[in-house]
Hints:
Layout: E1 3-9, E2 15-20, E3 30-35, H1 44-53, H2 55-68, E4 77-80, E5 88-93, H3 102-119, E6 124-127, H4 139-153, E7 162-167, H5 170-181, H6 184-191, E8 199-204, H7 206-221, H8 226-239, E9 260-266, E10 272-278, H9 284-294, E11 299-301, H10 302-311, H11 322-334, E12 354-360, E13 364-371, E14 392-395, E15 399-405, H12 407-413, H13 415-424, H14 429-443, E16 452-458, E17 463-467, E18 471-478, E19 481-488
Parallel strand pairs: 2-7, 3-5, 3-6, 6-7, 10-11
Antiparallel strand pairs: 1-2, 4-5, 8-12, 8-18, 9-10, 9-13, 12-13, 14-15, 15-16, 16-17, 18-19
Helix pairs in contact: 3-4, 4-5, 7-8, 8-9, 13-14
Amino acid sequence: MNALLAERTTPSGVVLQLAQGDITxxxxxxxxxxxxxxxxxxxxVAGAIARKAGPTLAAxxxxxxxxxxxxxxxxxxxxxxxxxxxxxxIHAVGPVWGTGEEDERLAAAVExxxxxxxxxxxxxxxxxAISTGVFGFPLDRAARVILGALLRGLAEPGGLELxxxxxxxxxxxxxxxxxxxxxxxxxxxxxxxxxxxxxxxxATWRExxxxxxxxxxxxxxxxxxxxxxxxxxxxxxxxxxxxxxxxRGALPNADGxxxxxxxxxxxxxxxxxxxxxxxxxxPAISVxxxxxxxxxxVMLAGDxxxxxxxxxxxxxxxxxxxxxxxRYEQWCRDNRPGMLHHVHAVGQHVGDxxxxxxxxxxxxxxxxxxxxxxxxxxxxxxxxxPIVGAGIYADDEVGAAGATxxxxxxxxxxxxxRAVEEMRRGATPQEACDTVVRRMMRRxxxxxxxxxxxxxxxxxxxxxxxxxEGEFPVxxxxxxxxxxxxxxxxxx
Length: 492
């Protein structure tokens, strides 16, 4: 009989327990096996489960591998349980420590196990300290990740009634008990409705992203909704003339005129608004929001977008500055097309569109983007930024994604929508972005010539990003705490 160390009931009514003992003795509907991607059950927990279950489990595991291929972190396999006391074994693949994104991948394995249990109609589940054996995941860290993932995954009622974490030895028990003690106050406060929802903003590129994300958080502190915050953050960047790929002072088209594109999307309703080739009006993102809220349409273009903006009370604005006039005149003298050269801030020679994602836990999402597009482009050229599904996409059922870089390639890839759909199939945000970028590099060779970046956030607040060429800086703000992460293109 495994020894019960701790127990609590989550706000959704699921009993969560911590126990010490032998997971192979559990009589829950299913137990989770700490597996490898090929379902070869050698030593550790996997070996103990396989030996006690008998040959049936090994045979079914190899049949699964032949039919489905390697098992991912987010999509565990499952088999019947042979001679074990449970009915099923869910084979979850945790990360090897030191391979990167370990926290996200371990959380994905735990949450994926819960999803499989629900699909099987199970009421009870036991799982071990995944990845803490030969995979080398530090025990204290794993305990926090596993318990946190369980609380997130059990936040909504339905299906499971009992989930038990079973650890083998005293060292693991101590680590999980320490992590357990960090949870009660937060959970009780949340159940009582006294903890405000965690808000996460994500923004692209170093200088412009910082301007936008700081402004968005300031608006949030003032009580703004996610849509308010994204609009305010991008509007602040549009008015900053030192940022050369958005708003006032942006690099013009080949005729010397600044044309702006913007879009915004609400993940709760899938409603969206956008403008493209907008001239002489700021902020373009605010006009896009008016399209969302005050028309039955998704996009207005060119002169008619300007006409609509004027009817909504926007004032004509001169978008040219001494800086962008000088750069345009230099381009004319050099007679270079400039179509593959991005300039984003004074003194900077790389960068692009500001795209932003937002999450309000437990699962409301939004996305927005604003840009002047490629410098010295053909007049009327439109890239991915104002295109729902290419430049942005948000769906409260899954997550949100955005794109930035060479708009034509990202548009052809339907990059943001693809990333969200990868997450819908169970991928983590990082896995989703990696998949989209790898597909682009394989199917669209031009995407290697100029950075094409994709980034995403899921309902749990996990963030991922990938880029086809060079570096891609991404800002994350969680309740006011800012962090800059630089993602690099995969090696050829």
